[in-house]
Structure to design on (688 residues):
């Protein structure tokens, strides 16, 4: 068993909602810090709230913990405490080893100086000696892939180029503990893949905490997960899939809406997993119920649809769209063309291709003329919501392992 | 697994470091030591950025004291104002005075400016914050170097007799810088919270300029002599000027008292700065 690098014992941090009061509390805290009194920390004062509330965990070398939660859940505050930027109001943090943190890339860049000069500045801010940077300069420039612009002032760089340079410098740190706030969102996918590969390399010898809103990336990279909600630990587990599922459950899927020109009607809809569950949806279905599907092995879902179309519609298509929580269509299936005015259909879908997450099905009926899909006759957006839980989360992040 | 002992361990808790003075001193010393290289790097960064976007460059470093000096020289020579007799030629007296004053003023502003400028860095990176102050100190020294070129020119022009006392001038100027930086450093934490501090300091500095014998000789009669006895800047500034022009320290006792107190106050200001920044950063980080 490798050694514990991060020990967090029930830490809490409070913040103030109002600026003026916050500044005044700052003065007071400053005073009590200087005379060595601690009692101002225990309770909430007026307009204060717990930004991080009683969070505890341990992390060993070789472990990578995904830190997830909604905006404002306290993730960055937690990272800042771990990095020693701010003090906890309760509890204790022990950090063993050299800490590398990417709270924000490119801090310390001076726009007027060239990329090369900024490598030296940025490197020494992160704790490098000049001789160390000299040795790694070529590697850094090569990693950032900006060799043509290395002697150009950074103010003429694109934001992606700045991120490249920032990550390139930081990734050469070889830290024992690596704290990574959501910084890789900028940068093109080619560079992101490179960054994730680099993270895999770093991970082998360090404890990593990785904040991201991209669950596929979390699922791919992390072997532990911590979900924060309103400052509290909502769940912590080595089953990352469970954490991701809980994270998705915090969000509402798309609202059910109807569309179309009314020339078709879906009168009945049945969603069933063989021998397990059967749900019927009347036309005025407005429930926000989420059907839970455990995906230990392959699961086939059957959907029964009744469609009535107007007499002037000669042929039509039925389109099933499967959308994830970000309303991105992850799968689509077109059935038809059909010609029955009153049709009763039964379709089978293999759900084993779905990853852990929350999804919604939209069903639309389209007019079909001269071999082409035309206007929407009837559409039920996000009519069925379901969540998939795979016991093993499979990352779909575009990462090649070296 | 015996390398566990070599790994640096840092513990963050709620309790103030002031309760464990030995640990506090150690951490201050460690930060100061590890900030040397970074401070130099930040200094080089600031200097090269400053002069890259400026055509007149170093000219700006001595423009203010020269102009202020010239104004008083003209006013005095045209008898618009009468600032009393000086024992050395008045233009020499004033130009040295305004240059020294400028050094003091820059030192006073430096810690605040440096810390405020590094705001985005402070909220995102954990680095020895002492580096900002050390880098600001280098910056003041660099500006002083440029100014001293002009001072040498003035000395040659007025054919000042060079004595051995000149060798102590750097020490006196160092004291002037430390005095300025100490006051500035003491105010820095609170000035990060309230902008009133910086605005107020600008007004007070302006006032202090006239309450210090910069452009006039030190008054001897009560109550004006209080300017010399109660203003801590006076003994150091007078001392530096005397050493430069006459080679002797005429006000030995006040000079050394203020110097001694400055060194002690500097240490206190550093301790406060070290303890205060994590608390201040928390309020800035939003």
């Amino acid at each position: 068993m490798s050694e514990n690098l991060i020990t967090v014992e029930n830490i809490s941090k409070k913040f103030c909602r109002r600026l003026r009061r916050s500044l005044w509390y700052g003065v007071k805290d400053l005073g009590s810090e200087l005379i060595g009194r601690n009692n101002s920390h225990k309770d909430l004062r007026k307009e204060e709230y717990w930004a991080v509330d009683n969070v505890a965990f341990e992390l060993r070398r070789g472990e990578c913990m995904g830190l997830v939660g909604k905006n404002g859940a306290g993730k960055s505050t937690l990272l800042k405490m771990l990095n020693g930027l701010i003090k906890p109001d309760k509890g204790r943090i022990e950090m063993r080893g050299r800490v590398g943190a990417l709270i924000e890339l490119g801090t310390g860049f001076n726009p007027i100086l060239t990329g090369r000069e900024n490598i030296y500045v940025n490197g020494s801010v992160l704790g490098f000696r000049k001789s160390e940077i000299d040795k790694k300069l070529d590697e850094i420039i090569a990693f950032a892939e900006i060799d043509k612009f290395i002697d150009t002032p950074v103010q003429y760089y694109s934001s992606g180029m700045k991120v490249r340079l920032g990550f390139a410098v930081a990734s050469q740190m070889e830290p024992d503990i690596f704290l990574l706030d959501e910084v890789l969102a900028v940068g093109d996918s080619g560079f992101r893949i490179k960054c994730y590969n680099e993270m895999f390399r770093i991970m082998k010898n360090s404890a990593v905490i990785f904040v991201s809103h991209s669950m596929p990336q979390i699922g791919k990279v992390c072997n532990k997960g911590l979900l924060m909600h309103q400052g509290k630990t909502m769940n912590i587990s080595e089953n990352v899939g469970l954490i991701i599922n809980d994270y998705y459950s915090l969000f509402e899927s798309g609202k059910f809406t109807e569309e179309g020109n009314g020339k078709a009607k879906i009168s009945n809809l049945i969603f069933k997993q063989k021998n397990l569950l059967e749900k019927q949806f009347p036309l005025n279905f407005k429930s926000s119920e989420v059907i839970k599907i455990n995906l230990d092995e392959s699961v086939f879902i059957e959907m029964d649809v009744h469609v009535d179309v107007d007499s002037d519609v000669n042929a039509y298509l039925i389109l099933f769209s499967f959308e994830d929580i970000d309303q991105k269509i992850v799968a689509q299936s077109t059935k038809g063309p059909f010609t029955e005015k009153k049709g009763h259909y039964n379709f089978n879908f293999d759900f084993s291709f779905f990853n852990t997450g929350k999804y919604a099905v939209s069903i639309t009926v389209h007019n079909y003329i001269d071999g082409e899909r035309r206007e929407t006759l009837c559409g039920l957006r996000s009519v069925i919501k379901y969540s998939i839980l795979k016991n093993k989360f499979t990352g779909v992040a575009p990462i090649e392992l070296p | 697994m015996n390398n566990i002992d070599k790994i640096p361990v840092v513990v963050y808790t709620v309790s103030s470091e002031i309760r464990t003075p030995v640990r506090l001193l150690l951490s201050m010393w460690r930060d100061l030591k590890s900030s040397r290289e970074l401070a130099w790097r930040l200094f080089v960064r600031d200097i090269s950025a400053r002069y890259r976007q400026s055509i007149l460059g170093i000219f700006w470093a001595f423009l203010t004291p020269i102009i202020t000096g010239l104004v008083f020289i003209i006013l005095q020579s045209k008898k618009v104002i009468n600032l009393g007799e000086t024992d050395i030629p008045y233009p020499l007296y004033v130009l040295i005075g305004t240059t020294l004053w400028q050094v003091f003023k820059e030192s006073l502003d430096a810690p605040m400016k440096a810390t405020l400028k590094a705001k985005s860095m402070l909220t995102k990176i954990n680095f020895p914050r002492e580096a900002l102050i050390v880098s600001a100190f280098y910056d003041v020294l660099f500006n002083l170097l440029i100014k001293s070129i002009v001072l040498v020119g003035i000395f040659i022009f007025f054919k000042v007799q060079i004595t051995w006392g000149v060798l102590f001038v750097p020490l006196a100027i160092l004291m002037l810088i430390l005095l300025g930086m100490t006051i500035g450093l003491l105010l820095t934490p609170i000035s990060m919270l309230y902008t009133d501090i910086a605005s107020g300091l600008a007004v007070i500095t302006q006032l202090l300029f006239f309450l210090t014998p910069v452009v006039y000789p030190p008054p001897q009669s009560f109550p004006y002599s209080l300017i010399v006895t109660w203003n801590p800047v006076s003994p150091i500034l007078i001392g530096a000027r005397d050493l430069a022009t006459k080679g002797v320290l005429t006000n030995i006792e006040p000079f050394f008292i203020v110097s001694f107190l400055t060194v002690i106050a500097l240490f206190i200001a550093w301790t406060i700065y070290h303890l205060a920044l994590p608390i201040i950063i928390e309020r800035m980080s939003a």
